Amino acid sequence: MKANSTDSPTVPVATGFVSKVMQEKLARLGIVNEFDLVLHLPLRHEDETHLYPINDVPAGANVQVEGVIIHSEIMYRPRRQLVCQVEDGSGILFMRFLNFYGSQVKAYSVGTRVRLLGETRPGFFGPEMVHPKCRVVSEGVPLADALTPIYPTTAGLSQEAIRKLIRQALVHGDQADSLAEVLPVEIIEHHQLQGFRDSVMFLHQPPPDASVILLQERTHPAWRRIKFDELLAQQLSMRLHFQQRRSRSAPALPEKNKLTRSLLHSLPFELTDAQKKVFAEISEDLAAVHPMQRLLQGDVGSGKTVVAALAALQAIENGYQAAIMAPTEILAEQHYQKLSGWLAPMGIKIAWLSGSQKKQQRQVALADIAAGNAMLAIGTHALFQEQVEFDQLGLAIIDEQHRFGVHQRLALRMKGAKTGAVPHQLMMSATPIPRTLAMSYYADLDVSVIDELPPGRTQVVTKLVADIRRDEVVARVRESCHTGKQAYWVCPLIEESEALQLKTALETYETLTLTFPDLKIGLVHGRLPPQEKSAVMEAFKQGVIQLLVATTVIEVGVDVPNASLMVIEHAERMGLSQLHQLRGRVGRGAEASVCILLYQKPLSATARERLRIIFEQTDGFEIARQDLRLRGPGEFLGARQSGVPMLRFADLEQDADLLAAARTAAEEILRNHPASAQRHLQRWLGGKSEYLRV
């Protein structure tokens, strides 16, 4: 997508006035061209346009005063500090520096006129400022004529240096007309938007009477225009990706109702209305000649796997292969076992691929997939390796899709491209996507939601228990296991270290083996050989093992209806979605189930809030909404690996109204003003506008 060079200058910032060293510093801030400087907006503003008489300074306010130093000394009690008295004729203010250089002692000598900016507070001798911004000035030096912007910066790049660069970029941009309006007049009027140039200039150089509060809260009309433009660029990009995908061809896989009906008849349960609804949506997509790109959301235990199996069967009954990719070996193997039980009696051959497979097994699986003997392939990331070739891949299903990087998802989809058609893609997630996030980051996907649980599922009771009451928890586990029930004891991930996690799991296993000599206890963790892992999980499923000590590898996919008690160690260290996923491993049978969250004091404010939310909420969508509020979209989406272009200025919760407006405007601009859409995307995304989500 190209635009005229006058729309958005893409000259390197080095042109004319920036050295190579400076370029490297700016690049660390994501600034690679002059227009990036224009959009490098302030974090906050300081008011250096007013002077307050010292006598009238309100306590706790961040204000500017000017006066002459009448006393300066280094004091040593209670600690070494530089203390100066500044007088302006109305009163005296104390200026204190706890860390200072010899040059400051010299500069702030008696008789020197200084201008201070800082927060005033009551001190032992009177009003004081601690570490204020201090400038030596001559009498009568004019005040600033605009609020002072404070920019995000990096080591070696001072505020003054970045201000100078931005001022130059604004002047150059104004002269080159690159701050000109690119949106259609009717869009600006309909959404009551302030002009783009005026908004940019205002945020970089707010007049003295500008509301610092509106600027700080980012609710000023200038901020709203910038946020609208950013959201609009995102929506335009997503809609274009959607249109681009619709223009590609995919194999039409209409519903034939042979294999799918056969599976439904063989199942020991009825699909819920929600499952029927989402499968109808998927089935309709598969019958189309353009690639499906659908996200299937369903809370823990809502029955996404059977929907995936039906989708795979619809591809298979049309003569095409399907692939199911899962992020962990335990989950992939769970899918393999469950689908083998359902589909093998129907004569469907399933291939299994994982990184830890023996070479001979792997060769057989690869040959079956390449020849088309295996109509369904299930595995981990091993599925998209170079040596894996499909005969005719018609459908790629990706479970827990947010756990895969963008290139991994694309690599699997490209496995079907040798026929010239792109396979359909179904992504599944048990981490529900909050509405504003779906509107924003998933705007180019079709979304289906399983919004009810199968009948017979019991609500899990969550209990918060401090570690000092561990004996009570041990007694509860013993009692539960002696009545014929099974339990999980989950160990946390400590400081992102698999080695430490393993150590904790092994120690816990040893301790519990001594504590419960009368119980059969199993251990499963990420480093266990796959055969051992499978054997332990199978023994737990069969009821041979009563208590399973596990790391968070059991977070997704494990289904043991007789397990009705879970203990999670150090629950305060885990994220909300992980706690919700783990809790979903119990409550899968008819028995009342309990999840005990063991935590250690003291709790941080964030940990306390997470535990409160998981204790009060069982609805995955509400938990996801609260998680988004606590973590922000970047962490929630795993955006560092997903390739999603993140929002810099807009806040999805605070600016939900702007997001809705941008969605509407994007449709209208693409329909009626395609040239404006191109210029706007070039301004905001530049080369990144070519990014295609997968």
Provide structural commentary:
The protein is an alpha/beta fold and 694 residues long. The protein has a seven-stranded parallel sheet, with helices on both faces. The two termini are 19 Å apart. Helices cover 40% and strands 17% of the residues. It is globular and about 95 Å long. It has 25 helices and 21 strands. Among the domains are: 50-143, Beta Barrel (OB fold (Dihydrolipoamide Acetyltransferase, E2P)), CATH 2.40.50.140; 259-450, Rossmann fold, CATH 3.40.50.300; 460-617, Rossmann fold.
The first-to-last residue Cα distance is 19 Å
Total beta strand runs: 21
- Number of H- or I-type helical stretches: 25
CATH topology (fold) name of the domain at 259-450: Rossmann fold
Instruction: Please state the overall shape, judged from the principal axes of the Cα atoms.
Output: globular
| Main beta sheet strand tally, sense and closure | 7 strands, parallel
Q: What amount of the residues lies in strands? A: 15-25%
CATH architecture of the domain at 259-450: 3-Layer(aba) Sandwich
| Residues in helix, % | 25-40%
**Strand neighbour order, sheet with most strands:** 11-12-10-13-14-9-15
The CATH H-level superfamily of the domain at 259-450 is P-loop containing nucleotide triphosphate hydrolases
Describe how the helices and strands are arranged.
Blueprint: H1 20-28, H2 34-38, E1 44-46, E2 62-75, E3 81-87, E4 92-97, H3 102-107, E5 113-122, E6 127-130, E7 133-136, E8 148-150, H4 159-175, H5 185-190, H6 196-204, H7 212-217, H8 221-246, H9 259-266, H10 273-286, E9 293-298, H11 304-316, E10 321-325, H12 329-343, E11 350-353, H13 359-371, E12 376-379, E13 393-399, H14 406-413, E14 424-429, H15 435-441, E15 446-450, E16 460-466, H16 470-482, E17 486-490, H17 498-515, E18 521-524, H18 530-541, E19 547-550, E20 563-568, H19 576-583, E21 593-599, H20 605-616, H21 620-631, H22 633-637, H23 639-642, H24 656-672, H25 674-685
Parallel strand pairs: 4-6, 9-14, 9-15, 10-12, 10-13, 11-12, 13-14, 16-21, 17-19, 17-20, 18-19, 20-21
Antiparallel strand pairs: 1-8, 2-3, 2-5, 3-4, 5-6, 5-7
